[in-house]
Each structure stands twice: as structure tokens, then as C-alpha cells.
Amino acid sequence: MVRRHLLLFASISLGFILLIAPAANSKLLTVPEGNRNAKQPRIPGASVKRTKQTKSTFDRKYDKILVLLQRDEKLRNKIAKVANIYGIDPLHIVGALVGEHTYNVDAYDRLQSYYVKALSYATGGISFTYGGQDIDAFVQLSEFDKCKELTASFALWSCREAVWEKKFRNKQVAGEKYPNDRFSAVFFQPFYAGQTFGLGQLNPLTALKLTDMVNEVSGYKKLSHQNGEDVYEAIMNPDITLAYVAAALRHSIDTYENIAGFDISENPGITATLYNVGNPDLRARTLASKNMRRKAQGLKPKYPEENYYGWLVNDKLEDLKKLF
Question: What is d(CA 129, CA 126) in angstroms, rounded to the nearest whole number?
């Protein structure tokens, strides 16, 4: 019942995407557990630098998030509960958390610290702007007119993000020079541009995309770009953010099934990779197109592959399985 409900909702959220996506393979291919790459893909220099600056190592950071998960039964129960609601294995959520806290930030020692940190952001006055221009006014510009007919949150914000990439990124528009950076980094991270926040290390744009699904499935109120405090509560409060983490993973699983013809639900390293790199819809369409060409050439389909982040999750899977 949960599975059918989520797929129905996902099909609504993906409506805009599927209209422009190549047809998925008729036969669904299961991506088996484990890594496709024998060696871990290269870790980005920014992650290496960030870890060195904190006088830590990736091994230490991995151990720290693993210990938090091992010690905190309350957190594990929360993860198991939300995973069940979204119809996914809890290892997908754990994989996302492990990857983020190994390669992005250090984990706090206690779950309570995440609640305390969330309160520090709830002081009011959070707005999404760039150069004095409010995001609400920005998305009313004529360049975004094609997005106006979209109502589902994922389709709407994906459309706006695509317009940013095509019309504004690294361009001068009406006398304003816009940065050569992601939409989420320019408008949606007023504290530390380019960084993500909370237990799930989500960025505000991702939360805005997923708000319809989380509202429908978990009952949390819908988020608005006009209310930055609500958005930051959603990504900082562990109780709410776990629902958004699960929704992101559920969306990736459904997207790869509907667009690329792959069942990735048995491979937490692949879902962790997509959680890390983002934009699963574009990546699924790219893979589908590539495999259509391969099929025409008489070649076997190319399977999704893990990046450095997902590789670690699959490599440590036996550790993570012991949590549940």
C-alpha cells in the first residue's frame, strides 16, 4: 500500500520530468548490492582540504558517525520508522548520513546537539536573496514564465533551477552579472554559501523541491521560499529532516525506475551517490539516453555506478547492516 501510494505521488511530482525524458527500458534491471568499481573513485580536493583543516581524517569522521548511530537507539528507531513510511530500506538513510558526515562535516557526539543547533537558526530574519534581490521577485521575471503552469513542488523548482542554469548562471541580464554557481548556492544559503546543514546535510532548494512529497506522506506543512525560518527548521530539526532525507532517496529510486529502467533499491551506495551529487532526474535521463544508443549498437546496458561517497557506503555495508 505504501509502495503504490508513493509511486502514484512520485508520478505526479515527476510529471514535468517524464514529459521530456526518453522512454525507460521495458525490462527493469536490478542493480545488485556492492560496488561496480574495484577501487574507490577519486575524492574531491575540496573534501580533502576541508577534512585537513579540521585536523581530522576520513577514517575518524566515519568512525564518529558510526559510533553515534551505534550508541543512539532513539536515532536508529527514528530512521527505521521513517524508512518504513517511505517504503525504503533504512540502510539508504544510514548511507546518506554516513557519507555526508564522512566527507562533508563531522558528526556531533549526540543527537540532542542537532536539536540545539536547530534552535540557533530559529531566530527569525532568514531570507533568500542575492545582491539585494529577493528570490520571490527573481522567479517572477519573464525568463521563468514557462514554469508558471507547474504546481508540483519538484517540477516547479526543477524548472526554475533549469532556467537559472540556461539564462542566468555566469551571464549578465538586465545589467546584473550573476555568479557562475549553482542556483542553491547563490540564492538559498544565506549563512554559508555552498554548504548544507543539519543531520541530513540538506540544502534549502532540495527541501523546497521535496516539500509536496513530505507533506503528503509525513504530514509536515508545505514549505515556501517566502518563509526561510520554516525551511531551515525542516533541514535542521532531525525529526523533520529525516523525512526529507527519505523523500530524496525515495525520489531517486522512483526516478531511476521510471526513467532509466533500473531498480536501485538494493544498492545503498547508488542512492547515496545520488544524494551526494543531486539532480537524479537529469542523471537518469542521461543514462537512459546512453543505454538507448548502446542498445542500438548491440551493446549491453551500462549500469549506474557509485562515486567516492557511495563507494564508501557499499564498502562499509557489513558495519551498517549491524545497526538494524
Answer: 10
Neighbours of 277 (CB within 10 A): 12
Q: How far is C-alpha 218 from the geometric centre of its chain's CA atoms?
A: 17
Which has the closest alpha carbon to 235: 197, 270, 271, 195?
197
Q: Per residue in 67-105, pLDDT tens?
A: 999 999 999 999 999 999 999 999 999 999 999 999 987
Pairwise CA distance, residues 91 & 310, whole Å: 12
Q: Where are any strands of DSSP class E within the chain? A: 29-30, 129-130, 133-134, 172-173, 176-177, 262-263
Element (H, E) at 24: none
Cell reading at 38: 574495484
Global confidence as pTM:
0.88
Q: Which residues contact 100 (CB under 8 A, 6 or more apart)?
A: 196, 200, 201, 275, 276
Q: Which residues contact 64 (CB under 8 A, 6 or more apart)?
A: 101, 106, 107, 109
Distances (CA, A) of 127 to 115, 121, 232, 260: 21, 12, 10, 37
Give residue 121's pLDDT.
64
- Nearest residue to 278 via CA among 212, 194, 152: 194
What is the rounded CA–CA span in Å between residue 112 and residue 142? 45
Bridge partner residues of 172 (DSSP): 177
Residue in the structure block whose three cell numbers are 514554469: 147
Tens-digit pLDDT profile for residues 26-42 = 689 999 999 999 999 99
Domain ranges of the chain: 2-321
